[in-house]
Amino acid sequence: MAAHFGRRLRKGAVTTTVAAVAVAALSASQAPDVTADGHGRRTTADTVPTPDTPSDDSATGNSPYYTDLPPLNSPSPAPTVGTPVARGPAEAGIPATVLDAYKKAESALRTAKPGCNLPWQLLAAIGKVESGQARGGRVDAEGTTLSRIIGPQLDGNGFALIKDTDNGVYDGNSSYDNAVGPMQFIPSTWAWAGRDGNGDGKEDPNNIYDAALAAGHYLCRNGWDLSVQADLNRAILSYNNSQDYLHTVLSWLEYYRRGTHEIPDGTGTLPVGRSDDSPGAGPSPSPGTGSGSGSNGGSGSSSEPQTPGTSTPGPGKPTDPGTSSPGAPSPTPPGSQPPTTVPTPTDTVHHLENAGTAGLTATAGDTFTERIGTRAETEAGKAVGKVRIRFTILGETDATFTGGETVATVTTNSSGVAVAPALRAGEKTGAFTVRATVVGRTVPGLDYKATVTERVADALARTDATALTCTPGGEFANQVEVKATYKGAAADKVAVTATLVRSATDPAQNDKGPYFKDADGKAVRTLSGLRTDAAGLLTLPKLYADDTTGTFVLRLTTAGGATLDVQLKVTEPEPSPSPSTGSSSEASPSPSTEPEA
């Protein structure tokens, strides 16, 4: 099947003089620390994780990946209609459904996390390295892989040791975990990172739409802006903690940014080189056979982050579910002793203790001032470092950790303490729980209670001093506008209640005088659920008057104790003056009479 999709030259081939000259001319234009071999294939530096590599668990568990690098030349523009695909470099073609999934994930993240600036080409680069674009696009119309893509079981034999965390639900292995799907998530990461990308109500790591969206959210956590190189590097390293992996993904990202084109599903070029290839390890599995990782992205997984200066790849090979049980141990060569399993730090954890976290309270929309700390201990109470602690937000709340996620995983330090990212309160008030658990070990979780309180104001004031007057049966010309503040600063999104009360000393709702109108035009004299805007301002709806005259009180109150009484007057209009009538200053002359003759 590899021949069917086109054969790639492997690294380490004999160098030719012509190629060497080309390499010298082109190597300067490659991604950071990337050079080219004699055949024009790019190679990367040794695996040297950077000091600031995130310590939380990676998406793949630091699993093996495809090391094939893109051609030195940039891809040609996408072929026009009727032009054979072969005119464009084969590596620039991405299977239609897979490409659609990447672009839809980018669009979704543009709305959900606009500050992340996730490019779909990054998902394509990771998808290429992890699974050869879902094994050359072998997916059905819904985006689900035609056969499962499962990496080697993580039993410590050449890979890190991750005991089963999903009871075999995703990987079919109830003894150890395996990386799963086209984006190669380990089950413990998928448990919180999984997303429904195709709207079918399921979160399936074997579906490219679900996996691509999950990968996008995973890369966009921690507030990273992927248009910033440092954040981009951190995000990629968090996916697989290997400097060589970083350079490989950056190479494909650069390549795809220069141009790609759509090809039919199932016709993608399959890679051949894997990071766990090593002398004596035997040949890599054929990229087109079985369901093991050699054919589909080949990710073994490691639950423990890489230690700087070490390398992930090992000699372990993938498990092919078609030929052996996923839970079966790796075969032991004849005449040799089975390897001795050394307990991991996780194996020694007996319980979790609160590392000094006191009350967790924050106002809606604010960040909790205190962060949750958890200490992992042995049965004897000794601290256990290098253990992954997962913090999960539970309950009816919209609170999140920094970066917008509801789950965060942190590795304990040398004192056995893991400190969760800062909690940010949402708009829902009330109590919720944050639960700390040990990743990869069944020990009782440790719960922390947190409370979100309502936004408050301690002062209310009108924004102008215009008198509010109206005639009976009319409407007030001016609407009431107020500003809420708290400790002198604008109090945004504070709930305000407006009530037309009987008097300044009687807070009961009045049954006559001014009123508001509801949606049906009926008179109402109490409005609740009003909220100030971002500047702390609130403009009330129009006020109307019935036939009752007098002076009335509109009382505004907020959470936090702010109160303001606004005076309203309903008076009869002033009578118009009568027209003035003046008297003539001269008497009208009497009719003249003729004297008698």
What proportion of the residues form beta strands (DSSP E)?
15-25%
Q: Any idea what the shape is?
A: elongated
- The low-confidence runs, each spanning 5 or more residues with pLDDT under 50, are 1-56, 77-88, 278-332
How many structural domains can be distinguished in the coordinates? Answer: 3
Annotation, overall tally of beta strands: 26
Pfam family, one: SLT_2
Keywords: Signal
Organism: Streptomyces viridiviolaceus
InterPro entries: Lysozyme-like_dom_sf (IPR023346), MltB-like (IPR043426), SLT_2 (IPR031304)
Question: Could you describe the 3D structure shown?
Answer:
It is a single chain. The chain is α+β, with helices and mostly antiparallel strands and 597 residues long. The protein folds into three domains: 43-76 and 87-295, no CATH class; 346-453, Immunoglobulin-like, CATH 2.60.40.10; 459-570, Macroglobulin (MG2) domain (Immunoglobulin-like), CATH 2.60.40.1930. The protein has eight helices and 26 strands. The protein has helices at 2-5, 17-26, 96-112, 120-137, 187-193, 208-219, 229-239, 243-257, and strands at 34-36, 42-44, 93-95, 261-263, 351-354, 360-363, 373-377, 388-394, 400-401, 407-411, 417-419, 423-424, 430-438, 446-453, 459-462, 469-470, 481-486, 489-490, 495-503, 506-509, 516-517, 523-524, 526-531, 537-539, 550-558, 563-570. A hairpin with a 2-residue loop joins strand 19 (495-503) and strand 20. The longest helix is centred in the first third of the chain and has 18 residues, at 120-137. It is elongated. The N and C termini lie far apart (152 Å).
